[in-house]
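retry 2 of 3: previous attempt timed out while embedding (2S)-2-hydroxybutanedioic acid. Reduced batch size to 1 and resubmitted. Inputs unchanged:
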Amino acid sequence: MFEHLTTAPDDPILGLNEKFKQDQREQRVNLIVGVYQDETGEIPEFRAVSEARRRISSNVKANYLGIEGDQVYAKLASELLLGADSPRFRSGNWVAAQSLGGTGGLRVVADFLARCQVTNTVWHTDPTWVNHQSIFNAAGLQTKPFPYLDSAGKGLDFPGMIAALEQIPAGHAVLLHGCCHNPTGVDPTADQWRAVIEVLQKRNLLPILDCAYQGFGDGLEADVLACRLVSEHVNEAIIVQSFSKNFSLYNQRVGAVLFLTKDSVQAGTLRSQVKAAIRANYSNPPQYGAALVRTVLGTPELRTDWQNELEAMRLRIATLRRRFSQSLREKCDHDFSHIAKQSGMFSFSGLTPEQVVRLRDEFAIYFVGNGRMNVAGLNESNLEVTTRAIAEVVGRVPVSVS
Ligand code: LMR
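retry 2 succeeded.
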């Protein structure tokens, strides 16, 4: 039965992270996975989450959750995206379900699109998160890229993107990163978002927004501008959310899917189909992580404390970006100024695959093979060593001979 099997390739992100763990060199630098690390290199727990753990510890029941998970949690999660006063919540033209992180949410969406024959094609930015295509392909949908990055690889190719979206056949889905584009850190401006959403609406394309980094770009509210514009201007859309990063709950797998519908009748039909998709996948989600998020979002003092701590993380990443780019400017000719301007955890460094391999093999500094770096993996003790190694592989500033 298994004779014909060949070895599957390692995952470009999580597979590389396994290699990092096996690396015995003392001064290793991990800029691989999108995980926020503090100044000491640890993944911090939010104070509000610690407090939520204490508050719910005696309250966790053993029974299954419903297929769509904790509905109070799902509503709070949706409100975080659209704002509690969104007209959607009054009119009932929405459906939300708890999911297994953002990835699990995307897979529910993929299964739903396939089983209900909503569309057979999902278009995605080029580049996109390495797992996006696999998730939709696994459900039997085809994926196609549209241009996103400019030729220098540092900014948005807005005209190219709009021109491509204009050509996509009506009825296809378009997957966008709600904020903090992964892997590039390049996001559309507010006006560009407006133009993109206008094209999606005009051409009758289904927006799917992947929103895994809310709070790490321009702020908790600013980062959901695209979600709010979609909710205002498009009848039918899908938003996938993750609390892995902004609640630092990576291994709890807490996420949500939000379906925006034409009206409340459609919402009822859709709910039944989403439940069928979840039931055939993992039956129903686990309770604990969602209970933590629900407790924090639903308790004003914990929510404020969480927001403040998240904001401090965001600002620290922005400082790291500036320090990193400045340190590189002092050491090499190569232009890394774009890194200071981008948002979220990631940047496309512009390093070639060969340079990435050299950094790993000679200096124990790990980037994803496509040159993506997790800026949130930098700190005072590894920034200098990292920039020195990068200068070494791209070529140092020539010493001027007077
Ligand atoms: C990443 O892009 O590094 C994260 O979303 C983690 C993952 O699952 O790839």
